[in-house]
Amino acid sequence: MDLFPERSRGGVGACLWRLTVLLLSVSSLPTATALLEGLYCGTEVCYDVLGVTREASKAEIARAYRQLARRYHPDRYRPEEPGEEETAHNKFLLIATAYETLKDEDTRRDYDYMLDHPEEYYQHYYAYYRRRLAPKVDVRIVILVTICAISAVQYVSWCSSYNKAINYLVTVPKYRIQATEIAKQQGLLNRTKEKGKNRRSKEEIREQEEEVIRDIIKNKIDIKGGYQKPSLSDILLCQIVLFPYHLSSYVAWYVCWVYRFTICREEYGEEEKLYLIRRYMKMSQAQFDSLEENTKQTFLEKRLWIKENYEVYRKEREEEMKAKLATDPKMKRYRRWMKNEGPGRLTFIDE
């Protein structure tokens, strides 16, 4: 039983009144309490700086910015009192900052989130500086341009190496004589003497002959290795583009290999035998292709595609190489020098 009903009802009413006043006071706090110094417009609300509402469209924001910019631009502003130039300049910078913040949809979204969630300080700093420090150019474009630049340098370097190899082969008597014979057979060097105005000097005729010999060597000689003829399919950009095709081709080849020679137990063909020999020797395709056909036939005759036969062949080659080095005069002189005058021996020079 309540002995003081009136006091009790009065106390509840007072508590409710105080709670209502507290809620109203919290809800009436200015929006600036959500703002952080150094972010966006600082302690000013960007919408208030431009004089627009949060529901304003991009066109309204742009129109308000142009009006304020014409008014406070340093070239057009005329101060009425001394010292107002700096105030007008700061005002113009604040207007520009507010426009830069609100004209972009993503930045405006982050700014509105900061106004609605003032307690997430670190999140606001992270979102602000992430957008300011992020690269303006798409990373994919940077990667593509880099790959294209590397591919261009790679192709030019290969062309230079190939031209150096051709220039060297032109000076080799063996290839030069063969190219000259081919040119004579094709009638490229057996031309009648020219007369009259069309007659050329000996220097011009010699330059043309050199060009003919050079073209024949280019067409007849297949250079392998680092000096081979450059191809667009070998540069980095094409390799990346064609990588899915090469990968799928390799997977299909490997599955076919396992099915034919592991499951069905088919016998190896000549191409498969040479592939196994090349893999055992750890040679690239270009290196293996540079070998003479007689050498490849010798490999096939010795049945080197069988692992045991290849191991025996490798040990025999190592023993032959050791014996050759032991009897080589150059190696003997080198070992003698290492023993008498090489590193590890301390001597004095007698005068």
What does this structure look like?
- With 351 residues, the protein is mainly α.
- It has three domains: 28-133, Helix Hairpins (Orthogonal Bundle), CATH 1.10.287; 140-190 and 202-230; 267-340, no CATH class.
- It contains 16 helices and no strands.
- The chain has helices spanning 5-27, 46-50, 58-72, 84-103, 105-116, 121-133, 139-171, 173-185, 202-220, 236-241, 243-263, 270-281, 285-289, 293-301, 307-327, 329-340.
- Helix 4 crosses helix 5 and helix 8 packs across helix 9.
- It is elongated, with a radius of gyration of 43 Å.
- Mean pLDDT is 79; it is low at 1-10, 21-32 and 344-351.
Q: Gyration radius, to the nearest Å? A: 43 Å
Oligomer: single chain
Share of residues in helices: 55-70%
Percentage beta strand: under 5%
How many domains, as an integer?
A: 3
Name the poorly predicted regions.
1-10, 21-32, 344-351
- CATH top level label of the largest domain: Mainly Alpha
Major sheet summary line:
none
Number of distinct helices:
16
Find the structural class using helix and strand composition: mainly alpha
The CATH superfamily of the largest domain is known as DnaJ domain
What letter string, H or E per element, gives the SSE order?
HHHHHHHHHHHHHHHH
Q: Based on DSSP secondary structure assignment, what is the total number of beta strands? A: 0
